[in-house]
Design a protein that fits this description.
heterodimer; A: about 240 residues; alpha/beta; Rossmann fold; eight-stranded mixed sheet; 9 helices; about 40% helix; about 20% strand; B: about 80 residues; alpha+beta; SH3 type barrels; six-stranded antiparallel sheet
Chain lengths: ~240, ~80
């Protein structure tokens, strides 16, 4: 158990405090560079908690995974091809409606998700109360309220990470039901996708992307991007990393 | 739709509040992008300031300010709710 290294992807909309959380968790143990072939900043760091080592990858802040900007492709490809042990989706407590769009998209790809509701102090100031228990029940994954800049809720988040890493949390990710037409399309494609791709990839999600005619995904599946071979590896000390 | 009530987001003036009825974009990627940014049917938009040259315009939607060019806001249809 002490030798295990788990990979955690960190996702979220721009300006949700994702990188603040990243810095709080990894401290000085981080380095930055670019994703291969893309001018998208890549930051990853490490931390240990209860004897386990975690590799934390700060993915670019995005509103979605489907608009096919370079940022979104990097985030999507990482989830798809790197298959991190878990994904922390950072959402802004003051703009949940907007932020849950990405969270739901991630839940369609993987169930190993923890939702960190950040800026909870800011929300309180604005009179917004977030019922995290109810949200967790609806989403089917753990939801932890935090304030990264005040270091509130970080212990609870780490406990949840620890519990998920060691298989003590069973998630039942919310699966969005689409219109009958789309569901019929998915049902038709599902066995074919499973035949070709096996269990490596989230079949329902791939079927949905195919129905959507996502050309960029097809390209990525044909030629999986080389991940983690960083170009022009620059070392940066300290919390100067800011990906927007 | 019925009698000229429905208008484009691009026709709104700073300070107007607008309810989105339809996002009707020929380019599916742009449509996806607008939806992802929070311009969804039923959603409310507050029109913010316009840039000095008249384009783009800032819009407050789902708790965030997003700037759109006229060629994007042209595709967002709905009605004016009121002017603040």
């Amino acid at each position: 158990m002490t030798d295990m290294t788990y990979t955690i992807a960190l996702m979220g909309n721009p300006n949700t405090g994702k990188s603040t959380l990243f810095n709080v968790l990894t401290g000085l143990r981080q380095h930055t560079g670019n994703w291969p072939g893309k001018t998208v900043t890549h930051a990853e760091g490490e931390f240990t908690y209860r004897g386990a080592t975690y590799r934390l990858v700060d993915l670019p802040g995005t509103y979605s995974l489907y608009s096919n900007s370079a940022d979104e492709e990097v985030a999507r490809d990482f989830l798809l091809f790197e298959r991190p042990d878990m994904t922390i989706v950072v959402v802004d407590a003051t703009a949940l409606e907007r932020n849950l769009n990405l969270a739901l998209q991630v839940l369609e790809m993987t169930g190993r998700v923890i939702v960190a509701v950040n800026l909870i102090d800011e929300a309180k100031k604005k009179g917004i109360h977030i019922n995290t228990k109810k949200l967790a029940a609806k989403l089917g994954v753990p939801v932890v309220p935090i304030s990264a800049r005040n270091r509130e809720g970080i212990d609870a988040l780490l406990d949840t990470v620890d519990a998920m890493a060691h298989g003590r949390i069973n998630t039942t990710p919310l699966s969005i039901q689409y219109s009958p037409d789309i569901e019929r399309g998915i049902a038709k494609l599902l066995p074919l996708v499973k035949d070709i791709m096996g269990d490596t990839y989230p079949a329902r999600w791939i079927a949905l992307r195919l129905l959507d005619g996502d050309a960029s995904l097809l390209q990525a599946l044909k030629q999986p991007p080389q991940l983690l071979i960083k170009e022009g590896n620059a070392y940066a000390c300290c919390g100067s990393v800011k990906s927007v | 739709m019925a009698q000229g009530k429905r208008c484009r987001l691009s026709d709104m003036k700073p300070g107007d509040r607008f309810r989105i009825e339809k996002v009707d974009v020929p380019d599916p990627m742009l449509k996806r992008r607008l939806l992802d940014l929070g311009f969804v049917p039923g959603g409310e938009v507050k029109v913010g300031p316009r840039s000095p040259l008249g384009d783009p315009t800032a819009y407050r939607v789902c708790g965030t300010t997003i700037a759109l060019r006229k060629e994007e806001s042209d595709y967002i249809y709905g009605e004016k709710i009121r002017h603040d």
